[in-house]
Design goal:
Shape: globular
Largest sheet: none
Number of strands: 0
Distance between the termini: 38 Å
Order of helices and strands: HHHHHHHHHHHHHHHHHHHHHHHHH
Radius of gyration: 23 Å
Length: 500
């Protein structure tokens, strides 16, 4: 970063009295955001790796690597245990290493995990590889949204706040697409590329100015902000705002403070949002996408359906990012939950009334890297599973996917942000582990429709939760959002309405 410029005291005072302009001519902010979210690309890639890998591994002639049904369930779900551990570790990493170094640290377990899976000779190597890539994903999913939020200009914070979700979705799409041409070993090795690129780029990026100020490094913080905003930008006003906010929260969070509204309200909102986000079913659906399509009379071969769903998911997230700061967070959450509800009900009733294909009928026959299985016979209803899944992904991607990540970094107070963001990831991925581990046994014992009806009930709860508990944060600075929680008024939502 460039050294901080020296300005006369009177000039600094006059600048501090003027709000920053809404335009952002400096593109280095976007470069820093891009470098960070490469970690989310790797996360999305690793998360859905079992979708093409499990059918191939279950059909291997080599017994030491062939997955049983129980092995497949663990292979799909153990990633979430690693992610939970990574989120727990980030509670320490974020506040001691810093946001940027936490992201860089995640590269070590990620590279090792992909290497173990790509060179696996025994099942334990596959499971340990999944666990390590999950740990890396937990670290990045807790630290990257915080880093992006803290370096972002208010005018683009909504769009940049969606970038972690967008790149995670892009990583999943690339995995689905590469699964059409690469076998499971080369897929794992391909996952190394974004991790190595991330580490190289982040070496040249600044640390979060808010984190630097929290450690008493004012010169470095001002230098970082100048680099991110550009020398010609009016960043002094923003720097004074950040400094005042950090001074108010220079002490560590205490148990007594957990009883105050400005702490417990955003913490409760954030934890519940991450819990409900996972209960909506997105993780088991993405992890077992090909197996779900293999079990239904879907119109195309499951590999191609997975790529189509991945592409639809990416387009939906990009559209949501472009509308988030225009339509607002709450309206998108309403629409998102309603679409997911309709999609889950459609899948549940379809599976209940239409006879299913034998489990893994096409996937178990061949390794998809070498031969394409023939699609099941088409009929007038065979397109419904694909359409319903596409709409579920559209609904999730336009609201409960990216906005949950964004609100986590927006509403949490600075002194609790590092710890609680890690706690949110811990709660999120423990929930995802439980759902992913239970999905295949529930499918086998009670039928595939049961999980989708359960997800439908959760979507109804999401609608109620959005109505009564989630605030609208569109266009408000982090400091202003925090000030509302400090008012102590009876209704947090009323305080927003009064300031419109």
């Amino acid at each position: 970063p460039l050294p901080p410029p020296h300005r006369p005291a009177c000039l600094s005072l006059s600048l501090s009295l003027s709000p920053p302009r809404r335009t952002l001519p400096n593109r280095r902010l976007f470069l820093a955001a891009f470098a960070a979210v490469l970690g989310n690309f790797s996360f999305g890639f690793a998360l859905v790796y079992p979708s093409p890998a499990i059918p191939a591994l279950q059909s291997l002639p080599r017994r030491s690597l062939r997955l049983s049904d129980d092995d497949a369930s663990w292979f799909g779900s153990i990633f979430n245990l690693g992610a939970a551990a990574g989120g727990l570790g980030t509670m320490y990493f974020n506040d001691h290493l810093g946001r940027k170094l936490s992201i860089m640290f995640s590269a070590a377990p990620s590279v090792l995990g992909y290497l173990l899976m790509g060179s696996a000779q025994e099942i334990w190597m596959l499971l340990v590889g999944r666990l390590l890539t999950g740990f890396a994903g937990g670290v990045t999913s807790a630290s990257i949204p915080v880093y992006i939020s803290e370096i972002s200009h208010p005018a683009v914070r909504g769009a940049l706040g969606s970038c972690p979700q967008i790149t995670a979705v892009l990583g999943a799409l690339v995995l689905y697409a590469l699964g059409l041409i690469l076998d499971w070993r080369w897929l794992a090795m391909a996952g190394e590329v974004p991790v190595l690129l991330m580490i190289i780029l982040l070496c040249f990026m600044p640390e979060s100015p808010r984190f630097l100020l929290s450690k008493g490094k004012e010169d470095e913080a001002l230098s970082a902000l100048a680099w991110l905003r550009g020398q010609d930008a009016n960043y002094w006003w923003e720097f004074e705002q950040i400094k005042d906010s950090v001074k108010e929260q220079s002490q560590r969070i205490t148990w007594a403070e957990l009883k105050t509204p400005y702490i417990y309200k955003p913490v409760a909102i954030t934890l519940l949002m991450r819990f409900l986000q996972q209960l909506s079913g997105v993780t088991p659906i993405l992890v077992y996408l090909q197996q779900i399509f293999d079990s239904t009379k879907v119109i195309l071969a499951s590999q191609y359906d997975a790529v189509i769903v991945g592409a639809v998911r990416l387009v939906s997230v990009i559209i949501a990012a472009s509308t988030m700061d225009k339509a607002g967070r709450k309206i998108l959450l309403y629409v998102s939950a309603f679409i997911m509800l309709a999609s889950n009900l459609t899948l549940g009733f379809y599976i209940h009334y239409v006879p299913l294909q034998p489990a893994n009928a096409s996937a178990m026959a061949v390794n998809s890297s070498y031969q394409t299985p023939a699609p099941p016979p088409a009929d007038s209803l065979s397109v419904l599973p694909l359409i319903a899944t596409m709409f579920f992904i559209i609904g999730y991607a336009m609201g409960w996917g990216p906005i949950t990540w964004l609100l986590m970094s927006e509403v949490l107070p600075l002194k609790a942000r590092g710890v609680v963001s890690g706690l949110c990831v811990l709660v999120s991925w423990l929930t995802a582990f439980a759902l992913t581990e239970a999905f295949l046994p529930v499918k086998k014992s009670f039928g595939l429709e049961v999980p989708f009806f359960f997800f439908s009930i959760i979507c109804v709860i999401n609608l109620i939760f959005t109505k009564w508990l989630i605030p609208e944060t569109k266009g408000r600075s982090l400091e202003r959002i925090e000030s509302y929680f400090r008012t102590g008024r009876k209704s947090f939502l009323e305080s927003f309405r009064r300031h419109r």
